[in-house]
Design a protein that fits this description.
This protein is of the alpha/beta class and 127 residues long. It contains four helices and three strands, in the order βαβαααβ.
Length: 127
């Protein structure tokens, strides 16, 4: 038995312009996770994806700085106007929030969740 939890992205479910390679990779990960869920089920293995929007990581922090410089706006405006433009709940996701979902998927109560994509995006994909 086992638990496979792939860190995907909202971009594994929907596309955004100018992100062809990233969106392609995340869609592939979604497919792999689903196939693994089907093949692993008879062995007690579950396979799921966690699909966050923008998580407060060093990569995102650098993107905020870059966008601020390119657009001539401050960091808070980048977060609000660019990163969280589509989100209903307008705040960056903290890494610990993603980790808690991963921990849940590895817990006994989640033993029947497999082949799923758990979205944590503040409503970003609800549009």
């Amino acid at each position: 038995w086992g638990r496979i939890v792939n860190i995907s992205s909202v971009h594994g479910l929907i596309a955004s312009p100018y992100k062809a390679a990233y969106v392609t990779a995340k869609h592939a990960l979604e497919g792999l996770s689903k196939v693994t869920a089907l093949e692993g089920a008879k062995h007690g293995v579950t396979s799921n994806c966690v699909n966050p929007a923008f998580v407060r990581t060093s990569l995102v922090e650098r993107q905020i700085d870059d966008q601020a410089a390119v657009n001539g706006i401050d960091r808070a405006e980048v977060v609000d106007r660019i990163l969280l433009d589509r989100a209903a709940i307008r705040q960056l996701i903290e890494p610990e929030q993603v980790a808690e979902i991963v921990a849940y998927l590895c817990s006994p109560p989640a033993s029947l969740i497999t082949g799923s994509s758990l979205v944590i995006d503040g409503g970003w994909t609800a549009h």
